[in-house]
Request: fold
Amino acid sequence: MTTMTKAAVFGTGSWGTTFAMILAEAGNETTLWGRRPELVEAIDRTHTNLDYLPGVALPASLRATTDPAEALRGADFVVLAVPSQTLRANLAAWREHIPPDAVLVSLMKGIELGTTKRMSEVIREVANVPEERVAVVSGPNLAKEIAQRQPAAAVVACTDEAVAERLQKACHLPPWFRPYTNHDVVGVELGGAVKNVIALAVGVSAGMGMGDNVGAMLMTRGLAEISRLGAALGADPHTFAGLAGMGDLVATCTSPLSRNRTFGERLGRGMTLEEVVAATKQTAEGVKSCESVLELARKHDVEMPITEVVVGVVHDGMSPSEAGMLLMSRSPKPERYGV
Ligand SMILES: NC(=O)c1ccc[n+]([C@@H]2O[C@H](COP(=O)([O-])OP(=O)(O)OC[C@H]3O[C@@H](n4cnc5c(N)ncnc54)[C@H](O)[C@@H]3O)[C@@H](O)[C@H]2O)c1
Ligand SMILES: O=P(O)(O)OC[C@H](O)CO
Reply:
């Protein structure tokens, strides 16, 4: 007799809820943990998440709870979908309930402020688990499209191939969700975190009224920045040509659904930072992670000019036109991959 795989998903936001839908429909016994009792009760009873996914019918088998111990009981996969900057504190509160053999899965796309750690590093440190028990899911995965059952592909990364394959199997849901495996956790995570910073830059340019040449330039040179940082941190360069690199960069930088692109667009249209923050109801990871990405780049002596001006515009009062001038006035150089 085969027993059902159990998954606990932490975070009832857009992506946590959508990924929980995929896991539940793929046949895993899935429980969603959330902070707010009213929302959790509504998900559990009405199978809807009106705050984050209005109009989407969640699977009847998907359970929801505010009790981490209940969500974690017997879990094979512990899936984490909270904001990157709160993960450390969240996980510290949950870790005593995590089953000893469970695989911890990060859906998050940020770099921790202060430590410059990737989410898998934070997970390993706080939950005290080896790298073989930590996996990452990333790629061009705009939650709202996937929740409407549009097809999407993703990358499931773990240094242990067998673990990646186990998770791949658990979330493979034809014809809706197609996960590929990869062993390059560093590259997959960097692709996901840094594309948010580049999407802010593309958004700013679009908000200023710039056209597609500027967007394409920022995406291409942004990919060069991601690749340079990846090379310095030991990532596989091929990862950045894949779904978690190029794929996610294109989806995020071009989609009106992207919170990061939209945040940048509002700044580019002349709204103040305070106004944009007030208008942004969901997690736009690049807003905080641009600072940790830049710090990481400086630690490793990697040049990231787009990231520098994004930090300037978002945090240091630089005007969008000054940012554009700075980028375009850099000394000319040959175009070489990774340079
Ligand atoms: N939405 C997407 O399309 C998408 C796709 C792929 C990856 N991601 C990544 O997934 C992660 C989560 O994104 P999301 O879109 O679900 O965000 P979201 O803003 O929709 O939801 C965030 C969730 O975290 C909860 N939360 C906020 N502060 C918290 C705290 N202090 N403690 C515990 N929970 C807290 C919120 O209540 C909410 O349930 C991010 O790192 C994001 O970059 C998002
Ligand atoms: O809405 P964003 O900008 O957080 O992007 C969502 C996903 O990361 C796209 O893959």
Notes: DSSP finds 15 helices and eight strands in the chain. The longest helix spans residues 185-207. The mean pLDDT is 97. The two ends are 55 Å apart (CA to CA).
